[in-house]
Design goal:
The structure holds two protein chains of two kinds. In chain A, α1 runs antiparallel to α3 and α6 packs antiparallel against α7. In chain A, 74% of the residues lie in helices and 0% in strands. Chain A has two domains: 153 residues; 111 residues, no CATH class. Chain B is of the alpha+beta class. Chain B has three domains: 83 residues, no CATH class; 122 residues, Kinase associated domain 1, KA1 (TATA-Binding Protein, 2-Layer Sandwich); 240 residues, no CATH class. Chain B is 29% helix and 30% strand. Chain B has eleven helices and 24 strands. In chain B, strands 4, 6, 10, 11, 12, 21 and 22 form a seven-stranded antiparallel beta sheet that branches. In chain B, a hairpin with a 2-residue loop joins β10 and β11. Chain B starts with 5 loop residues before the first helix and ends in a 5-residue tail after the last helix. Classes of the chains: A mainly alpha, B alpha+beta. Chains A and B meet through α7, α8 and α9 of A and α1, α3, α4, β8 and β11 of B.
């Protein structure tokens, strides 16, 4: 039943994807590292120019010794354009790596003649593919090169774990998974996890950036390459707003499937409990953003807590808790 | 009392700072009992309390995933209690083994439910009024709004106002009618759109209440029962034929529809290719059944599968388990049959090492009991003794110990899968050791002491069937789907107010068309301001589009 050749090629696909994503991560990291030194350089140049300007104007017109250098003009001159060839390479390689992941999944699915959504190894691959697709989709609409490192980092980590810890030999499904709901429920679940992952990265960056905006550090760091905290906040909220209804759908589709497979649409199975907990925490996040007396910062921490619950749901519940969702393949 | 959200503040620019305590000089008045109640109600229905209760619900649900739950697996709870003699009883007292029916969990969700209803009712009333109200008057200074733009277009001010009204109406904005009394208002347009955002929000919350009611209905009016049916046997839907039945409090157990299900054959397959943890995993279960809706009704041949329940008499029939039922015959010393039936043994692990008991109350001269294992693929392990190495019937065998004496001491209820050996003695073999029988299909083994013989005729499979009736099921489904639709509406639709004010353009700005070659004629300066409820990153874009459309309508652009 299992085509071993295709399964092996699928594994080669994954190895290549991991190599490509390692390169992607390096590229984006170099790009961000350069942002810090570029900002530092520009700042000193501005400072020198300001000093020179002060001397010149001081010499020319002695009535006005206080020729001030406004930071606004400095900003406009420095933001001209930083050479970002590394980020460009990172973006191109991101497309390549994502393509390799899709090929890996397709070969895996073909090798067992079913959708590759049957165990934790396959969830990991599908989830990372979706996270990358979300990132690439965003990149088509606006400049998100600053985000590359913080998406490919978790992606690479997950792929590494998939290969070393979650790896499951290609095989057929448990009878309870023989259903078209597998495709609907698990695809939407992994898609929303992909969205939540990107949203999580953006939320963390937003928290760092807003801290930096309130307490500007003397030395510039990679954070200078990020958009403003307000813009990051909008992006994070926008991603959460898309992911939350998808997660709601996951919950409903799971209940419909559970009713068909087990006879209960809700039986407080550990996986159901955690899916519900995640839903509640993100619902609380959305409510907190509309509540007087809750700052957006506090709300952001709820979003982070929601993501922590997603990690528990994937890594702890599947493996350690006894329930009917026991198909980790481990 | 409506929940006070930040949105309310956004609606009234300039009032953001009205949080200073009022009447701070005055002594706190006595609020009295009614006042206290009102205060408590306000606290309960406030957004902050709702948020707190939401998080509490999330935290409260977690213990149920960590500790075993009685309603799911009572056996694991008693195992846990016997292993943890110190913590166990305390956890039990705190309800950690029945989390979802514990008083504290109920307290959280009931409070949340009340808070939810207390939020929905006043908000619905407010929204009902808002839906029928006119958009408010334009504020005096549009440039103070969160988004504001200006542009010079071609045309007289009256023409531009007419164009703005047409454009906004086209974009499905509701317009404030022009005020015939106040001539100053003739140069402004006030419009609002996105009422469906709040409608969606309310629909979402009301649908959640519907889902909760549906779940409660299912608990009160639903029932579920489990039964083990060996191949070749028939199950009829009456209370007494269930192994376990759990009817809701409002269910009359005599009212079950008398349908029947006969399990003809059970097809099972297991993974025998892939190695590792996947080896021996189940791959397919199908029960071939004959069903009748009621006695005397025509027989229907139907397949019952793991993801394919049958629907009979308003109930659903699920195939949830399977295992082996060895057909065992016991004869007494004279060769008379005293026991002969398919006896289900319950699987204990993935390789179907199954435990069960054979109880022979008609044994002669004494009652007989056999207790032990059925192993579908027998193998001897150095440490564990006889085990099963594969779930399919590759080398089936029964391994049994034999007891004689009183099977039912004191008439206490007992499991059919274990023996109560309090009043029984174990039968010993010729070597003085407890007798252990190893029986393969077709074999007959003579028992010592003139107790007769035992035969394993053959091995059939059994289907673990679960039958559920949940009248709240469809209501819950529709409720949750409508909730999802409401949620999407409330998250994607933008509630916006747009105000347009026009005035004749100053001569120097007139003529400064976007391409420098604007058509001749009078010029008008359009000032547009926008205000959004909640987050709205595209408000400025929306204003841009309105301006573009006005410009196009007045012929200002090519």
């Amino acid at each position: 039943m299992t085509n071993e050749t295709l399964a092996t090629y699928s594994n080669y696909g994954l190895y290549s994807a991991i190599v490509v994503f390692t390169l992607v991560m390096l590229m984006f990291a170099i790009d961000l590292a350069k942002a810090a030194s570029w900002t530092a350089k520009v700042r000193t140049e501005d400072h020198e120019r300001a000093l020179v300007g002060a001397q010149v104007s001081g010499a020319a017109a002695q009535q006005e010794p206080e020729t001030s250098e406004s930071p606004e003009t400095a900003e406009t001159t420095t933001e001209v354009s930083r050479p970002r060839q590394f980020a460009g390479m990172g973006m191109s390689l991101s497309w390549l790596g994502t393509l390799l992941l899709i090929v890996t999944l397709a070969l895996r699915g073909l090798s067992v003649d079913r959708p590759p959504l049957g165990n934790m190894y396959e969830f990991a691959l599908v989830g990372t593919t979706f996270a990358m697709l979300v990132f690439l989709g965003l990149s088509l609409r606006r400049d998100v090169r600053w985000l590359g490192l913080f998406v490919t980092g978790p992606v690479l980590l997950t792929l590494g774990l998939a290969l070393t810890v979650f790896y499951t030999q290609a095989s057929q499904l448990l009878p309870s998974l023989h259903s078209f709901w597998l495709v609907i429920h698990v695809t939407v679940a992994t898609l929303s996890v992909g969205l939540f992952t990107v949203a999580f990265s953006v939320t963390i960056l937003q928290l760092i950036k807003s801290h930096r905006e309130q307490h500007p550090p003397a030395k510039p760091t990679f954070v200078e390459a990020m958009p403003s905290a307000a813009s990051l906040d909008r992006t994070a909220y926008g991603l959460h707003v898309i992911a939350f209804p998808l997660w709601t759908f996951t919950l409903i589709a799971g209940a419909i499937w559970a009713e068909q497979a087990w006879g209960h649409y809700w039986n407080w199975d550990p996986k159901e409990v955690w899916t519900f907990v995640i839903w509640i925490v993100y619902a609380a996040y959305l409510h907190a953003r509309a509540t007087t007396g809750w700052s957006d910062r506090k709300a952001s921490f709820l979003a982070l807590a929601g993501y922590a619950c997603i990690l528990v749901n994937y890594m702890v519940v599947n493996v350690y808790f006894v329930g009917q969702h026991s198909y980790s393949g481990m | 009392m409506a929940r006070r959200t930040r949105d309310d503040l956004v609606e009234r620019p300039g009032h953001e700072l009205d949080t200073q305590p009022q009447e701070s000089e005055v002594l706190q008045p006595k609020i009295g009992f009614l006042g206290l109640l009102r205060w408590m109600w306000r606290q309960l229905t406030s957004m902050r309390t709702a948020l707190f209760l939401l998080l509490l619900l999330a935290i409260g649900a977690i213990p149920g995933s960590i500790w075993p739950q009685r309603n799911i697996d009572a056996g694991r709870v008693s195992d846990y209690l016997s292993q943890h003699t110190v913590v166990g009883p305390w956890l039990d007292r705190l309800g950690f083994f029945d989390v979802y029916s514990s008083p504290w969990f109920a307290a959280i969700y009931l409070l949340l439910f009340v808070s939810l209803v207390g939020c929905i009712i006043p908000r619905s009333r407010l929204h009902w009024k808002a839906m029928r109200a006119q958009p408010p008057k334009a504020p005096r200074r549009l440039e103070r709004l969160s988004a504001h733009q200006e542009r010079v277009v071609v045309g007289e001010p009256e023409q531009v106002v007419a164009a703005a009204r047409a454009v906004l109406r086209r974009k499905r904005y509701r317009l404030r009618p022009a005020d015939p009394v106040d001539p100053a208002s003739a140069d402004t347009v006030a419009a609002e759109s996105g009422y469906l955002r709040e409608t969606g929000n309310l629909v979402f919350h009301i649908a959640l209440v519907v889902v909760i009611i549906a779940v409660a209905l299912g608990h009160l009016l639903g029932w579920r029962g489990d039964v083990i049916v060996p191949e070749g046997q028939t199950f009829s839907n009456t209370v007494s034929s269930y192994d376990t039945i759990d009817p809701g409090p409002w269910v009359n157990p005599e009212s079950l529809k008398p349908f029947s299900v006969r399990v003809q054959k059970l097809d099972v397959s297991f993974e025998d290719q892939a190695g590792g943890a996947q080896f021996g995993q189940p791959r397919g279960f199908t029960a071939h059944t004959l069903t009748r809706d009621e006695p005397g009704a025509p027989v229907k041949e139907q397949k019952l599968e793991v993801n394919g329940p049958l629907s009979l008499g308003g109930a659903s029939v699920f195939l949830l388990g399977n295992g082996y039922a060895p057909v065992i015959t016991v004869r007494d010393a004279k060769g008379r049959v005293v026991y002969s039936q398919a006896t289900p043994f319950l699987p204990q692990d993935n390789n179907y090492r199954s435990v069960g008991a054979v109880k022979v109350p008609g044994g002669d001269p004494e009652q007989l009991g056999f207790f032990g294992f059925f192993l579908p693929t027998l193998e001897f392990d150095k440490e564990q003794g006889p085990i099963s190495s594969f779930p399919d019937l590759d080398n089936p065998a029964l391994v049994l110990g034999v007891y004689k004496g009183d099977l039912y001491p004191g008439g206490r209820p007992q499991s059919v899968y274990t023996l109560d050996t309090d009043e029984m003695t174990q039968v010993k073999g010729a070597d003085g050791q407890p007798l252990r029988l190893l029986i393969k299909p077709g074999q007959t083994i003579k028992l010592p002491d003139g107790l007769g013989s035992i035969t394993l005729d053959k091995v059939v499979r059994f289907a673990g069937i679960s039958i559920r009736h949940d009248p709240g099921k469809m209501l819950a489904l529709w409720g949750s789907l409508i909730a999802l639709a409401g949620l999407i509406a409330s998250l994607t639709i933008r509630r916006r107010r747009v105000f347009v004010r026009v005035r004749p353009a100053e001569p120097e700005t007139a003529g400064a068309g976007p391409d420098g070659s604007a058509p001749p004629g009078p010029r008008t300066l359009v000032s547009i301001g926008g205000l959004a409820k909640g987050e709205d990153p595209r408000l400025a874009d929306a204003l841009d589009h309105v301006l573009d459309a006005i410009a196009e309508r007045t012929g200002s652009t090519s």
